[in-house]
Each structure stands twice: as structure tokens, then as C-alpha cells.
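Job type: complex structure
Entries:
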Amino acid sequence: GAGVSQSPSNKVTEKGKDVELRCDPISGHTALYWYRQSLGQGLEFLIYFQGNSAPDKSGLPSDRFSAERTGGSVSTLTIQRTQQEDSAVYLCASSSGFSGNTIYFGEGSWLTVV
Amino acid sequence: QKEVEQDPGPLSVPEGAIVSLNCTYSNSAFQYFMWYRQYSRKGPELLMYTYSSGNKEDGRFTAQVDKSSKYISLFIRDSQPSDSATYLCAMSAGDDMRFGAGTRLTVKP
């Protein structure tokens, strides 16, 4: 596609429910990133996929968070048993995967846990 | 100490002013330096990209990198109300990208 596409753009969920956030990266991009941005805060790295390599999960805040990338393209970030502190915007980004190449962001999925 | 330090502001300037935004970093391996602009409720968009030390100019925007001081800057000349946004610095040594906290800028008409 022309850009990184994320869905849903907005999600309100009840505490304790599971949520899935989807990211469709730019066509041909092998690297995919998930970040979290809380209100007024910087970008918090969550997870990074590069081609067929094992993902870098070092940023996932707890075992309630998981992500997968099927077929090297679309990725899903899953948050189980959501908590109010999970409320944030979840940003997906992709790049061509070459060293130093810039990353391009989607518009984000705005999650509110009530 | 954070790997990338950026003053979150907020910064408010009158229209037409020159704006200076800065970041410092600690990892001397960083070679690629970027500035992203993020409007309210939007994803960050790439504004400037610089490799290693030096200056890069694009219209009203100038990015400077001083690797010896581990210091990068973004200058905005003749600032406009449409420049009001959060500006995030970013840097990497390869695929590992690190972001500053972002500086919130308001340009008042």
C-alpha cells in the first residue's frame, strides 16, 4: 500500500478484555516496529520484526503483550486482560530493513481502557 | 541517564521567529539522525534525515549534527502556525532506532 495502515484507529475496551491491533506495512518493507506513546510521552519501543529473523521482543512491558507477523507482512499486536495503564496510542512503523533506513509510521491505534 | 535526551517543552514562539530544537545522546555508535514531526492525533512523519556529522537544509528547516558533542539540532526559520506540532528526534546505529521524548512547539499568529 501507499503507507502504513493501522486498524482500528480508535478502540475503547473494558478492563480485563483482550484487544487486537492490526498493522499493514508498506509493501516490500521487511522491517516492522511497534511503539507505544502515552499522553505527552515519547515513543516506547515494544517489538521489532525483521524478515524471517526472530523478533526483538525486548520492549514488551509484560507477558500480557504479544505480537506476531504472518507471512512477513501484516502484524497483529495483542494485549490480554487489558489494564487502564494500557491506554495509549499504539504506533506501527515499517522500513526497508537496510541499515540506517528511515522508518515510516502509521496513524496509530488509539486505545482507551475503561 | 536516557540514551536520548530531549527537552519536552512546551515551547511557544511568535510567528516568524527562528526555532531551535535540540537533542543530546550518549551512544557514540549512532550514525543516522532524524527529525520527525507529529501533529495532534497523527502518527509521526519524517521531516529530516542526516547521516553522520554536518548540516542539511530543506526549505525553512536545517538539521545539524555534531557527533563530537553528541548533539543534534533542528532549526526552523520564519516559523508558521502550521509548524505547531511535536518534534521528535531519532537516531540509530543500524536497525535499532531510539527516540527522544519530543518537544511540543506552538507558533502563535
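Summary: Chain B touches chain A through 24 residues (CB under 8 Å). Chain B has a mean pLDDT of 92.
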